[in-house]
Amino acid sequence: MLTEIDFLDVVRLTPLVAIDLIVTDAEGRVLIGRRRNRPARGTWFVPGGRIHKGETLDAAFTRVADAELGIAKLARSSARFEGVFEHHYTDNFAAEPDVSTHYIVLAYTLQFIRTVSVGRFEQHSEYLWLTPAELLARDDVHENTKAYFR
């Protein structure tokens, strides 16, 4: 496990690789959460998380779905791959001045027949279900999330 100082060096020097989950329900609404952590703290964002060194994509997907949605043992094969996206932030997890964060994000869509009840609030303080049009119209939804719907 990296120390906070070592992880800050990683953020300073390299892009991070992550998975974002674009979760939709039968009504076409998208799940977004208000971020607790930097970067992008306070904005609405789709659930997601970074891939750990040595972790397979399948294992990372399952872990992120469990951590972010509370859905255990969800297979990556149950999702549709949407593509590779880049996310750039001027800040970082530690609020260290002059250290930006760069993510390479693998985006996956999960479509559920019914609205999923999300009860975990580790990364997000609250959740909303919005249509893509509602999401795009809001100023507090992060541009990196809006990019999935443009």
UniProtKB/TrEMBL annotation:
<dbReference type="Pfam" id="PF00293">
    <property type="entry name" value="NUDIX"/>
</dbReference>
<keyword id="KW-0479">Metal-binding</keyword>
<keyword id="KW-0460">Magnesium</keyword>
<dbReference type="GO" id="GO:0016787">
    <property type="term" value="F:hydrolase activity"/>
</dbReference>
<dbReference type="InterPro" id="IPR015797">
    <property type="entry name" value="NUDIX_hydrolase-like_dom_sf"/>
</dbReference>
<dbReference type="InterPro" id="IPR000086">
    <property type="entry name" value="NUDIX_hydrolase_dom"/>
</dbReference>
<protein>
    <submittedName>
        <fullName>GDP-mannose mannosyl hydrolase</fullName>
        <ecNumber>3.6.1.-</ecNumber>
    </submittedName>
</protein>
<keyword id="KW-0378">Hydrolase</keyword>
<dbReference type="InterPro" id="IPR033715">
    <property type="entry name" value="GDPMH"/>
</dbReference>
<feature type="domain" description="Nudix hydrolase">
    <location>
        <begin position="12"/>
        <end position="150"/>
    </location>
</feature>
